TrEMBL record:
GO biological process: phosphate ion transport
Residue intervals passing through the bilayer: 24-49, 69-102, 114-138, 167-186, 236-257, 283-305
Membrane protein topology class: Multi-pass membrane protein
A GO term from the CC aspect: plasma membrane
Official protein name in the record: Phosphate transport system permease protein
Underlying gene: pstC
A GO MF term: phosphate transmembrane transporter activity
Amino acid sequence: MSATTAPETPPQQHGKPTKRPGDVLFRGLSTASAFSILLILAGVAIFLVSEALPVFGADPAEVTGGEGFVSYVWPLIFGTLVASLIAMVVATPVAVGIALFVSHYAPKRLGTAIGFVIDLLAAVPSVVFGMWGFQVFAPRLVPFFTWLSDNLGFLPFFETASRTGRTILTASLVLAVMILPIITAVSREVFLQTPRLHEEAALALGATQWEMIRTAVLPFGKPGVIGGTMLGLGRALGETMAVAIILSPGVFTWNLIDSGNITVPAEIALNFPEAAGLRLSELIAAGLVLFGITLGVNLLARWVVNRRAEFSGAN
């Protein structure tokens, strides 16, 4: 008998796996893209700070208003924050309701159609919203503003009503319409990601449709809703053309339904083309303040989302 020899096993190779050129190139491009965002952000911040420095060392009498930069910019900040917060408060409940209807109540075809319309609404240019708010929406709000003044005039927010409807409240409602698609789209996608087992478990325990949404869907989607709301708030804080078209620059007032008040972006858009010298530095400094507010809002949103994610229904 001839002896059979066992086949030799190839020697095992130890060490690092071979890197393919495509993987190395993709990793390098991804890393460069990530760092480019930081470089762009730093470049914008350096530009704003360097161009705004003259106004901080100028004589207060030379600044618009004659009382210094703080007195000039804080009414603009007030108008920006008030308009954005009102828009967020109005838009968020409506957006969450639309998202829940599309994701859990509407038939599939109807929900798809509504979602398509919401996405189209996000593509409408801001100047169109501004013209609609100026020509159509503002005049129709005049009777409502008059009613507020007649019945709630004892409050400083509703003392007198504008006859044109071009008020900070009108601009806020237009902003609410503009940020509605952003919050709706983010909330809808988050609600659709709710684990099916969580929903079925709630229904199996005897929960109604609303109880299932309240105990399973909303806790899971809360971080996403907060993130979408903050994205909408960031859009409202930086909106320029719609607010500039609706509002006419005026003196600061606590009254929300009378003419007056202006936002930082609208102030910059209306005056930047003809600005020069110290006036240009004022506008850039106002942009620096808006930059800081927006950065703070985004950092706060990230902190809230990360904190909420630890206690969400996803865990």
